[in-house]
Design brief:
By secondary structure, the protein is mainly α.
Length: 82
């Protein structure tokens, strides 16, 4: 139970950091911001499909949180490099 709580709390904190990084990028208003917006919207649709498939295959809430944390970590790394 503690793992679920920790993992979910970390997802919230990590997601907040990525939201901040994205807002900084979007506030520039250049072509990179437009590309980021398109990428973000595509990621939302892909995440919904991936989560639905995971749950339909019998996945747990913990596995969904772990998937989201992997995606959030990849976004944070990508946004920090640019």
């Amino acid at each position: 139970m503690f793992f679920s709580f920790y993992s979910t709390m970390m997802l919230g904190l990590e997601s907040g950091n990525v939201i901040g990084l994205r807002m900084l990028k979007l506030s520039c208003g250049d072509s990179d911001a437009l590309n980021e917006m398109h990428l973000m919207m595509g990621e939302k649709v892909n995440a919904m499909v991936e989560t639905s498939a995971n749950l339909l295959a019998g996945g747990s809430a913990d596995s969904v949180v772990d998937q989201y944390r992997q995606h959030v970590a990849a976004n944070a790394k990508r946004l920090l490099i640019r």
